Amino acid sequence: MGAGMTEDERLDLMRRMLAAQRTIRSLMDYLDGVAGECNVDDQKGMAFSIYMIREALAVYSLEMVAYTRKHLGDE
Asked: Which of 4, 60, 70, 71 is the most exposed place for a label (fewest CB within 10 A)?
């Protein structure tokens, strides 16, 4: 268990992380849809920018999981 964390605090942290993961996943799905609609030549740059934002969210999501696991003592 995380250092000095009660079981309730541990569960709360896990719930918050999962809720944040769901929010990030929804945003990534939305960005995929928006970028998919940018298929005309003058919008290709916008689609690329949207995909880069999506990839940054994916990296953030992984970092958030690693941080949470570290604080829960699950590494």
From this structure: 4
